[in-house]
């Protein structure tokens, strides 16, 4: 059975307390609520960005459609203006002038159709521009929210890091005051036991597994020398004996 001064064994409880706190801090760092909130906001921003790209594509398509419709209308208007000018000048034969009149009537009908196309294209463009503007606003709002959440997350992480640094310094100070062999035994014991390698024996109960020791185990502990390192028969953790142990 390994041996170590009783005072060193009792210091294991302080070391264990620090290790438990370090584990709690690591869990807190890994489960910061702000991180989950930030991940959700960033995912929403990516979704909005994809939709915004599609909306801006529709705006570009709409602008081209409006430009084409305007050009088509302008072309017909120019042709009608030229024909009107020739007709008003009276230049040409009667047949030519009659042909110009018929063409003007046809151009007027054509212009009406094209103006409807132009109006429809402008309405679609306006709708696309409105949708793109709304999405851009939403993206901006999400960006602001994400920045705020990131700041809050960073503040929490810095708080955790500060406490971790203090805890690690405290751990180093405690461990340096314990026999190296005992610290190594503690580390080997706690590794497969959820990070808990030493537990107080309080009123004949192991504080590691919360089970009460039977009479034969208690008798064996009573017979063990103070410098003997003893273990819980149930959970295998180092049992630290103090005045609270009830032996």
Report a brief summary of the structure.
The chain is mainly α. The protein has helices spanning 6-30, 33-89, 94-176, 180-190, 215-223; strands at 198-202, 205-206, 230-231, 238-241.
Structural class: mainly alpha
Tell me the CATH architecture of the largest domain.
Answer: Orthogonal Bundle
CATH topology of the largest domain: Helix Hairpins
Listing every helix as H and every strand as E from the N terminus to the C terminus, the arrangement reads: HHHHEEHEE
Straight-line N-to-C gap? 19 Å
Give the biggest sheet: 4 strands, mixed
Per DSSP, the total helix count is 5
Shape: rod-shaped
Any key phrases for this structure?
rod-shaped; 2 domains; 247 residues; single chain; four-stranded mixed sheet; mainly alpha; Helix Hairpins; 75% helix
Structure description:
The chain has 247 residues and is mainly alpha-helical. The protein has two domains: 6-26 and 177-245, Orthogonal Bundle (Helix Hairpins); 30-164, Helix Hairpins (Orthogonal Bundle), CATH 1.10.287.1700. 75% of the residues lie in helices and 5% in strands. It contains five helices and four strands; from the N terminus they run ααααββαββ. It has helices spanning 6-30, 33-89, 94-176, 180-190, 215-223, and strands at 198-202, 205-206, 230-231, 238-241. A four-stranded mixed sheet has the order 2-1-4-3. A hairpin with a 6-residue loop joins strand 3 and strand 4 (238-241). Helix 1 runs antiparallel to helix 3. The protein starts with 5 loop residues before the first helix and ends in a 6-residue tail after the last strand.
